[in-house]
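The protein record quoted for completeness.
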Amino acid sequence: MPEEHIDTLARIIWDYHHVGHGLKKSDCIIVLGSHDLRVAERGAQLLLAGWAPWLVLSGGLGRLTEGVWARSEAEQFAEVALNMGVPEEKMLIENRSTNTSENIRFSRELLKTHYIEPHKIIAVQKPYMERRTLATFGIVWPEIELAVTSPQLTFDEYINEEYPKDLVINIMIGDLQRIILYPALGYQLYQAVPGAVKDAYHELVDLGYTQHLIDSSE
């Protein structure tokens, strides 16, 4: 299979995962845990630009960081933010969560313990996790006014030695499968998946991009 065709299919999935939200001044920014420190950089940039007064860094050790990182995702993210100039007193660290739902639920609980009850939130995730984040907030914290954003990179810009193309495609395919399956399990709100996206998904699965799929037969 020509690499150009694989790239075309991957960009279809990549574009679908983006929700295209514009930003507005909010009550806090929540950076959801992941293995990508560029997500923390994006959250710190937004805090420093004045989009919100609080930066919540969320994440324990999840499926991509457990056994790889010695410290929690949130603690790694906090170090990035501090090095970028975010004042420590503007950060809250939630370091117990292991998935997106827990990122949201535990961050909400942490904010409440600090007497912060936000109405508008900016959620920061990996580019190919925007839609899943939106769909999960819709279940866990539906009353919030939400904008989802991510590092401002194209598919080609996102790929590097640390995040090679094959890894990113495998993870994107796994996230799309969860978008399809999780609403029936009550984990996420339903998201329509266009036919062209489904076709690209099935073709990439047939090509062997299956490393991050879950068993859907259960």
